[in-house]
Description:
- By secondary structure, this protein is mainly alpha-helical.
- The protein is elongated and about 55 Å long.
- Helices cover 62% and strands 0% of the residues.
Amino acid sequence: MKRKPTHPGTVFFEDVLKPLNLSITEAAGMLGISRKALSEFVHEKVSLSPEMAIRISRATGTSVESWMNMQQKLTIWEAEQNIVNNVIMFPGLSMDSTMAL
């Protein structure tokens, strides 16, 4: 089992807000969102939305895709932790043949 990917809210808090010495309230104002919305994101209560990724990307000069990729990795990891074991591979397919999909 691979390690759980870091939530993008934690990355935003640790790598952006802390080094810039910005409070959640200050950053929320600069992002044009409520303090509550940003607090829930940095405290991992909610996932990163595309809208929030756009706001963060514009405020930090980073790509929207980099932020969304962090969320996607976390979302897939969480789904894999809950997958049921009763899925059977379709006949005639192998793991090698599915790689082309």
